[in-house]
Amino acid sequence: MKTPKKIVVFVIMLAIFTDMLMYGLVVPFLPIHAESLGASQSEIGLLFASYAIALFVATPLFGALADRIGRKKLIELPPVK
């Protein structure tokens, strides 16, 4: 039995919306929490920069990997512990 395309698209859109919503809720409070833990402004800046750098590096690598082994297999890979 095949899943209707509309349901698949809806589930993917819901997952993306939830991810972006949670990111939007956490990010504004992250600097406040980091300051309460004693982090300096420079350390907080490095925290946000490290995310951007990791995303910048990982995106083309995972894109090439998806082209090589397939998107479905890449998504199905278990997280590394």
Describe this structure in words.
This is Major facilitator superfamily (MFS) profile domain-containing protein. The chain folds into two domains: 39 residues; 42 residues, no CATH class. The protein is built from four helices and no strands. The longest helix has 29 residues. The mean pLDDT is 87.
Summary keywords:
flat; 0% strand; MFS_dom; mainly alpha; 81 residues; membrane; transmembrane transporter activity
Helix/strand class = mainly alpha
DSSP helix fraction: over 70%
Bulk shape: flat
Strand content: under 5%
Unreliable stretches (pLDDT < 50, length at least 5) are none
Structural domain count? 2
Helices, by number, come to 4
Major sheet, described briefly? Answer: none
Query: How many β-strand stretches?
Result: 0
Order of helices and strands: HHHH
